[in-house]
Amino acid sequence: AAMAARHTGHPVKMVFPRAQLAEVVGHRAPTIQRVRLGADLEGILHAVSQEIVTHTSTIKEFVEQAAVPARVMYGSPDSTTTHRVAALDVPSPSWMRAPGEASGMYALESAM
Question: 79 with 70: CB under 8 angstroms?
């Protein structure tokens, strides 16, 4: 827009269809998550496991740490978190409206 405005001498407004926004401003990479919780008969939490599968771009690596909060949100003697990332020929993911941990926290809280 800035180059077009300079060339024409007039303000230029750029409009992108929603489908093209991810190419211009980034997107939150989708995640596949598996959450497992272990508690005793009294409801005391003893184990937390969260596995994340997501993607990044082959051009610029960006991975949101979706499972990291599971390490500290609940006190349990046994915690395991994993992130598996596939590098794909897609636009680079980026920050979107909330910290990257939000999607992992949502899955963990839903399971809880």
Answer: yes
Domain count, the chain: 1
Q: Let me know if residue 64 belongs to a domain.
A: yes
Computed over every residue of the chain, the mean pLDDT equals: 90
Q: How confident is the model at residue 19 (pLDDT cuts 50, 70, 90)?
A: confident
Q: What is the DSSP string of the chain?
A: -HHHHHHHSS-------HHHHHHHH--PPP-EEEEEEEE-TT--EEEEEEEEEEEEESSS-----TTGGGGTSS--SEEEEEEEEEEESSPPP--BSB-THHHHHHHHHHH-
Q: What is the CA radius of gyration of the chain?
A: 20
Specify the CATH number for the domain of residue 107: 3.30.365.10
pLDDT in tens, 65-104: 999 999 999 889 999 999 999 999 988 898 877 777 889 9
